[in-house]
Amino acid sequence: MINERRRMRRIRFPRPVRVAGPQGERWSARAVDFCLEGIGLEADHETAVGEEVNVIFNLARPGSRARTVQARGRVTHCERRGDGYVLGVQFRH
Q1: Could you say which of 3.40.50.12160, 3.40.50.300, 3.30.300.30, 2.40.10.220 is the CATH number of the domain covering 11-91?
Q2: I want to staple 33 with a disulfide (CB 3.0 to 4.6 A). Which of 10, 68, 78, 93 is the partner?
Q3: Mean pLDDT of successive 10-residue stretches along the chain, which has 93 residues
Q4: 42: buried, middle or exposed (CB in 10 Å: 19+, 13-18, 0-12)?
Q5: β pairing state of 38-43 and 52-58
């Protein structure tokens, strides 16, 4: 069980996400949940804890006009789950 340290409640947020690493490498991920402090992702790409990444995603509801968001964040955890990884990214404000 993960020790819950979040100050804000996250909402389910199943959306495609693009991630860019510090050397400019880019990969696709899928958002799981979201709040103003961070985002949970599922990805095929292992990412080091502490690494700075940019995440790009559409904040609008499906069927609405796109509201693309680009946010910088720090990877707070990355754990193997099945064939992929589950990541937590804390946004930098």
Answers
A1: 2.40.10.220
A2: 10
A3: 62 95 94 95 96 95 90 97 97 89
A4: middle
A5: unpaired
